[in-house]
Design brief:
The structure holds 3 protein chains of 3 kinds. By secondary structure, chain A is mostly helical. Chain A contains 9 helices and 2 strands; from the N terminus they run H-H-H-H-H-H-E-E-H-H-H. Classes of the chains: A mainly alpha, B alpha+beta, C alpha/beta. The structure holds flavin-adenine dinucleotide (FAD), protoporphyrin IX containing FE (2 copies), iron/sulfur cluster, FE3-S4 cluster and FE2/S2 (inorganic) cluster.
């Protein structure tokens, strides 16, 4: 039995952990999208949701720390895999062509490090943007509690053309990351190559597109309706 | 009663065509390599790719030049000696075919053909297109065997093995150790080669006993040799002359995780 | 020189077990003090190196390729025999023994062959334990098939890759010993000489094929498991690096070379397409089970084969051998293909091929059935020949496949030089004048796993442990210098003809005149032609590159130089053997209807040749080991 440290740093262990962290991040995305979509619910739904989160208190910190750890770990692994490849092939080919067929080389799979890095940069900006953005507040009708009005912030921010363009562009690129990542994570965790794996690849495309379409819908809708659309109750 | 074997009659000659070759030259492991170009007019559709290189080498020698070194032995796609990267594809364009079995009928008059050695830090160039693949031997040495002493085996039929399992194990066992998987992998990973051996032995009852130690030792050795990680590109399966499935890599990972808990 | 085969006394069935009981042993703690060199790590060498290392001997193993896994054994397709009698069709050790003796046309030693049949079963056990994935039935038990005309199903197989799987098994066992430090493993090393001190083999000289360095290795015993010499024909089914150099150099140091003219030709190979052809690809003989062999009746009929009506097709095997038809043995099928082509009836662009037609099988059983049986062979054919065998007949032609001849060894697999052993295809031991399908793998592994480990111990028990002369001994100096000088000489010629060109010309002579069919006249002229060409070779060959670098053409150069000498010996051996036997036909010795005529009265012996030098011509002395048959009755073959 290998020591845990050795195992986790082995090629298999590292890849296994990219998969685990990747799946963790995907689960976060599902949750985050769910939460974000509550902006289309009743006028207060979104703020109630964010407030609920805040009221988790220390637990929220634990969750956030976990999330940060996942992002960080995933990033470190991704970057180290990429650096390793440069060590393993110092001199490249003058000509290189995929054989196609069984190959899973695609724009998506070959650009993981780039799409990943862009997501990372986005993330930093995104957190500055919203978590540490303008601190509006509002009073919840039902409970009369004073809470942070993130809804307003989001709706305001997504009126700005350059922000919407930025978000849409990044979220579009994230489709690439997920469409390979979803399939790849299963493979990293031991999925065999065959019919199931082909289905998983189809599901991966669907998943990537649906999740990201969900995210993209928010800024676009708000932008084009000027925050007054019928889906957004006032 | 003379018996002709070596014939090149007109009918055969008339089908000759021309290709433009660009191939890697490197005098030794530490020497700087470069490309050399040459046009070959006497290519025939029945020639194998390596026979085409033989013809090139005959020409070079007749001009007093050094022939291009490349590795081969069986020329039947089974020994795994040959491993050229042809126009950017390990073993060339044909699915499930080693480059010694690739025939020139897959090319046409005027084609440009670039030939490079497999490129990986773990496969240093020896000369021209010949590389040192002893890293593969060391991966097998680390655990790619069943520890059975000669003479200590039990009766062969004492332990039946489900046909289906045995057939799958066979699929993995067909690896010829050519290294095309490494050559084609964008990460220069040896995961398919290593996984194929781990999967072959791990599926059979004879190999299961040592599987935990085997998988850990072989995976360790693979990294120690300087091969890259596997990012699930699957290019290795696409170029593998035996079309070994990347399920082998999945088996390797599964068994590694099992080993952690054993 | 008296040839002592050292066959133990006693009844046939007990010779080996009795011998094992009485052979001397080396105590386990003493084994580490002995070093054994294995030159060659194919089935025979790989199995032997692994087994001796497991026992505790210090082993050094050498091979030409960059890994032991690439030895020529890897290419064997069909299978491996053993008399397990799993199918319960009446097989037994005796029957396997009998079939092998008979298949070899009564030119092998009974005792050796019996031992081979006896240990074959252990090989299967061993291979299965190593994880060799032999074909299995749905019951989970091992499957067998019948092969090469045998009347029982005794062939174990792993799809069309039996040799590969067996070799990988032996290779893996070997690598385990490398890891344990019991084997020093030298790849890309070629043996150039054996070192003999006081008449005993004490080491070898090798060339590092990457750096060109000539190195010396001392040991207490040397095993040559360097494979066959089929490449003397230039074109053969052998791998390109197969050669006679190790065996030949040992021969030049005094080891006798036995039966060099016994070469097997395989009838179903993909034909030659042109001058550039570098090797011939074998297709499984099983194709003859359903394919019908024919040529057009009319000379120069260049219609598409599908347009030639049945009445104008000459199904020559069916006509000449009504009872066996297309299933006549390898040599008969090969010879007849040659005869029809000599008569100008050959087909294809070169006229050197006959048709193997599946039209009727496809009509009878349907394309799917045929595909299920032969799909991968058909695909292979289509890939190489560029024609679809479902739509038109295959073209096939015979090709050199296996060499029964080799270094002379006694029952213990030791050559006449003490301490020098030979195993696998490199020795002459078990196949007589012809080898049955699926029995070369059996022999290589039997030699390596079961015979050598016992007999080398027996030999070493008489060698004082720790005897060392040092690699600076004058015998090493001399051999190393000779090896270097030969290389320097080749490189200095800088002539105008390439090595391959010479080899091709040599091959043509050997194929034409020392091939399937021979005559006194042809053999005599072959000897002259070989001598002349050899002289030209040493004057006009161009060897490129330098000696201190990887240089494959330099390797070829010295191998071809050795083939030149071997070829002459083959011709002399063929000339001496005034009978038609096993794989070859001497034109002067045939029955009225053109069948082989064996002469047991005068030629029941092993020809063991002693080397006396080359000086324009090859000087030799022939020693004969008479073959006595106590347990089987000699019968003339008939396939009519
Ligand atoms: C296409 C084909 C199909 C066949 N199919 C079958 C079959 O189905 N069944 C069957 O029983 N037989 C078959 N045979 C025959 C069988 O494969 C061989 O006879 C057998 O494998 C020989 O094994 P070996 O160990 O003696 O030698 P090889 O496997 O030839 O090994 C020779 C070794 O010697 C080394 N070597 C050679 N010269 C030197 C040197 N000078 N210095 C250092 N090392 C050297 C090589 O590197 C290699 O390691 C087939 C043969 C061919 C060609
Ligand atoms: C929400 C954010 C992210 C999600 C959902 C996500 C998801 C995934 C998934 C599922 C995989 C496949 C894992 C595997 O192959 O086993 C993956 C791979 C990868 N991710 Fe991410 N990822 C995210 C962010 C990032 C970030 C920030 C980076 C930073 C650089 C990154 C870099 C990579 C790289 C390089 C790979 C490929 C790893 C390899 O080559 O083996 N990802 N990602
Ligand atoms: C249109 C799309 C998106 C909207 C409207 C949105 C909205 C928000 C808001 C409002 C917050 C602040 C929550 C708080 O402080 O409680 C937040 C935080 C966050 N968002 Fe997004 N987000 C979007 C897309 C994304 C994407 C694609 C990612 C991942 C790559 C992401 C990752 C995060 C993270 C990690 C946090 C910090 C969570 C925390 O610290 O609790 N978001 N997002
Ligand atoms: S896995 Fe395939 S490509 Fe890789 S070494 Fe084995 S046969 Fe070659
Ligand atoms: S191509 Fe490389 S990334 Fe993995 S799946 Fe194959 S080893
Ligand atoms: S030369 Fe043997 S596989 Fe290509």
């Amino acid at each position: 039995m290998p020591s845990f440290k050795k195992a986790i740093n082995s090629q298999v262990g590292r890849k296994f952990m990219t998969g685990i962290t990747g799946i963790g991040l995907m689960l976060f995305l599902i949750g985050h999208l769910g939460g974000n979509l509550s902006i289309f619910g009743s006028a207060e739904a979104f703020n109630i949701y964010t407030d609920k989160l805040m009221s988790l208190g220390p637990l929220l910190y634990v969750i956030e720390a976990g999330l940060a750890f996942f992002f960080l770990y995933h990033t470190i692994l991704g970057v180290s895999i990429w650096m390793n490849k440069r060590k393993a092939r110092p001199e490249g080919y003058t000509e290189y062509k995929s054989r196609g067929g069984a190959s899973h080389q695609s724009l998506a799979s070959r650009s993981m490090i780039y799409t990943g890095s862009i997501i990372l940069i986005f993330l930093v900006l995104h957190i500055i943007h919203f978590k540490f953005g303008a601190d509006y507040s509002t009073v919840l009708e039902a409970s009369g509690k004073e809470v942070r009005d993130l809804r307003r912030l989001v709706i305001e921010e997504f009126q700005k053309t350059w922000i919407v363009i930025g978000y849409v562009a990044v979220l579009g690129l994230a489709i690439l990351h997920l469409s390979h990542g979803f399939w790849s994570a299963f493979t990293s965790l031991g999925m065999k190559h065959g019919d199931t794996s082909k289905k998983i690849q189809t599901i991966a495309y669907a998943f990537a597109i649906i999740i990201m379409a969900g995210f993209i819908f928010i800024p676009l809708y708000i932008y084009f309706t000027g925050g007054q659309g019928s889906l957004i109750a006032n | 009663m003379c018996f002709r074997v070596f014939v090149a009659n007109e009918k055969v000659m008339s089908k000759n065509f021309t290709v433009h070759l660009k191939y890697w030259r490197q005098d030794g492991p530490t020497a700087k390599g470069y490309f050399e170009e040459r046009t070959l007019d006497t290519v025939n559709e029945h020639m194998s790719f390596l026979e085409m290189l033989d013809v090139l080498n005959e020409e070079l020698q007749l001009e007093g030049k050094d022939p291009v070194e490349f590795d081969y032995d069986c020329r039947e796609g089974i020994c795994g000696s040959c491993n050229l990267v042809i126009n950017g594809q390990a073993h060339g364009p044909k699915k499930g075919t080693a480059c010694c079995q690739l025939h020139m009928r897959n090319y046409k008059h005027g084609d440009k053909i670039t030939i490079e050695p497999p490129r990986a830090a773990a496969f240093p160039v020896i000369k021209d297109l010949v590389v040192d693949r002893s890293a593969f031997d060391r991966i097998i040495e680390a655990g790619g065997y069943v520890s059975v002493k000669t003479g200590s085996a039990q009766e062969a039929n004492a332990r039946p093995i489900e046909k289906e399992t045995s057939d799958i194990a066979f699929d993995y066992a067909t690896c010829i150790g050519c290294g095309a998987c490494v050559a084609a992998c964008p990460n220069a990973s040896a995961s398919l080669f290593t996984g194929a051996k781990i999967a072959h032995l791990g599926l059979l009852p004879q190999g299961q006993v040592e599987q935990s130690n085997r998988v850990v030792a072989m995976v360790d050795q693979m990294s120690a040799e300087g091969f890259g990680d596997c990012s699930n590109y699957g290019e290795c399966e696409a170029v593998c002359p035996k079309e070994i499935s990347i399920s082998a890599i999945a088996e390797m990972r599964k068994d590694y995780v099992k080993a952690m808990f054993s | 020189m008296k040839l002592d085969s050292k066959v133990p006394e006693g009844p046939l069935e007990q010779k080996w077990s009795q011998h094992k009981k009485t052979m001397k042993l080396v105590a386990p703690n003493n084994r580490r003090k002995y070093e054994v060199i294995f030159v060659g790590t194919g089935l025979a060498g790989g199995a032997g190196a692994a087994s001796l290392a497991e026992m505790g001997y210090k082993v050094k193993a050498f091979c030409i390729q960059d890994s032991a896994r690439r030895a020529h054994s890897i290419a064997a397709q069909g299978g491996i025999n053993a008399a397990k009698n799993y199918p319960n069709d009446g097989d037994s050790i005796y029957r396997l023994f009998y079939d092998t003796i008979k298949g070899g046309d009564y030119r092998s030693r009974e005792a050796n062959v019996y031992r081979l049949a006896e240990v074959a079963n252990n090989i299967i056990d061993q291979a299965v334990a190593q994880g060799v994935p032999f074909a299995r039935e749905y019951s989970g038990l091992l499957a067998n098939r019948s092969f090469g005309g045998a009347q029982v199903s005794r062939t174990f197989y792993a799809r069309g890759q039996t040799g590969q799987q067996l070799l990988i098994g032996a290779y893996q066992s070997m690598m385990r010993q490398v890891q344990e430090g019991n084997i020093d493993y030298y790849t890309r090393h070629e043996m150039l000489d054996v070192v003999i001190i006081d008449g005993v083999a004490r080491g070898i000289i090798t060339r590092d094929l990457v750096t060109g360095e000539i190195t010396r290795h001392e040991a207490d015993a040397v095993v040559l498991a360097t494979g066959g010499y089929g490449n003397v024909f230039y074109l053969s089914t052998n791998a390109k690096n197969s050669n006679v150099t190790a065996a030949w150099r040992a021969h030049k140091k005094g080891a006798l070379f036995a039966n060099p003219c016994f070469v097997q030709v395989h009838p179903t190979c993909i034909p030659v397409s042109g001058d550039y052809q570098s090797k011939l690809t074998l297709m499984s003989e099983s194709l003859r089970n359903d394919g019908r062999v024919w040529v057009p009746r009319k000379k120069g009929d260049d219609r598409h084969p599908n347009d030639i009506p049945d009445a104008e097709r000459y199904y020559y095997l069916e006509e000449r051998y009504p009872s066996f038809g297309n299933l006549v043995p390898r040599d008969v099928a090969s010879r007849n293909a040659k005869i029809v082509c000599d008569d100008g009836l050959g087909v294809g662009e070169t006229g050197l091929a006959v048709y193997l037609d599946f039209r009727d099988a496809i009509k009878r059983d349907g394309e799917d059935t045929v595909r299920a049986k032969y799909g991968n062979l058909f695909d292979m054919y289509e890939n190489i020949a560029g024609e679809n065998p479902y739509k038109q007949p295959m073209r096939i032609f015979p090709a050199v496949h296996y060499t029964m001849g080799g270094l002379w060894v006694d029952y213990n697999l030791m050559t006449n030089i003490p301490g020098l052993f030979a195993a696998g295809e490199a020795n002459f031991s078990d196949h007589g004048a012809n080898r049955l399908g699926a029995s070369a793998l059996m022999q290589g592994l039997s030699d390596g796993y079961f015979v050598l480990p016992a007999t080398i111990g027996n030999y070493l028990a008489d060698v004082k442990p720790g005897t060392r002369y040092g690699t600076d001994h004058e015998a090493f100096d001399e051999a190393a210098k000779k090896a270097q000088d030969d290389i320097d000489k080749l490189l200095s010629i800088k002539g105008k003809r390439t090595i391959i060109d010479f080899h091709r010309s040599l091959g043509k002579i050997v194929w034409d005149k020392i091939g399937i069919q021979r005559s006194k006249e042809g053999l005599e002229s072959a000897i002259k032609e070989i001598q002349a060409l050899r002289e030209e070779f040493w004057k006009d060959v161009y060897v490129p590159g330098d000696k201190n670098n990887y240089n494959k053409y330099l390797e070829f150069a010295f191998r071809v130089a050795d083939f030149f000498e071997l070829a002459e010996l083959m011709a002399k051996d063929a000339l001496d053997r005034e009978e038609s036997c096993g794989c070859h036909l001497r034109e002067e010795f045939q029955t009225e209807d053109g069948e082989a005529l064996r002469n047991d009265e005068d030629f029941s012996y092993v020809s063991a040749w002693e080397y006396k030098g080359v000086n324009g011509k090859l000087d030799t002395e022939l020693h004969k080991e008479p073959l006595e048959f106590e347990f089987v009755e000699l019968k003339q073959r008939s396939y009519k």
